[in-house]
Write a structure and sequence with these properties.
- The protein has one domain: 3-Layer(aba) Sandwich (Cytidine Deaminase, domain 2), CATH 3.40.140.
- It is built from three helices and eight strands, in the order E-H-E-E-H-E-H-E-E-E-E.
- The protein has helices at residues 6-19, 58-70, 91-96, and strands at 2-5, 25-31, 34-41, 74-83, 102-109, 112-121, 128-131, 133-136.
- A six-stranded mixed beta sheet has the order 3-2-4-5-6-7.
- It is globular.
- The chain starts with a strand and ends in a 6-residue tail after the last strand.
Length: 142
């Protein structure tokens, strides 16, 4: 189960809608299974592949770790969009994923975020398991 505030989902939606028709992405920062902050990223993929792929560079991971540490949080996952297609992990997503991270995939249809689903890669990397997303009305709500 992953917990996130409505306010953070609004920020995720805005970033992913702005990236449309390309994929957008960012990091989830938090404690345990609760997202407390996000870090949006530019899509570093070459122009011709951005519509169905995103790339997070090594220095992006480093910046996310530094940002999480500065907030006394941890890097707990990644969010990205699937423009005009289902928000289920692709084989490409599985190849690049890390076990123990949560992966929120947002379906963006015609430039509008329409649904969120979260996934965790199995420890043996063979499959994803869907995890429930609990949406809090505010960051302070528990």
């Amino acid at each position: 189960m992953l917990t996130i505030s409505k306010e953070l989902l609004v920020r995720i939606n805005a970033h992913l809608e702005a990236a449309y028709p390309d994929e957008g992405a960012g990091f989830l920062l938090g404690e345990d299974d609760e997202v407390k902050e996000i870090l949006t990223l530019p899509n570093a993929r070459e122009d011709s592949a951005r519509h169905n792929r995103f790339l997070i560079e090594a220095e992006d991971y480093m910046k996310a770790e530094v940002r999480a540490d500065s907030l006394t949080l941890s890097l707990i996952g990644v969010f990205h969009s699937h423009p005009d297609c289902p928000n289920v992990p692709s084989e490409y997503d599985r190849e690049w994923a890390q076990p123990f991270f949560s992966y929120i995939i947002t379906r963006v249809d015609n430039g509008k975020a329409v649904s969120h689903r979260s996934w965790r890669l199995a420890e043996d990397r063979s499959r994803y398991d869907e995890e429930e997303i609990i949406i809090l009305e505010s960051k302070q709500e528990k």
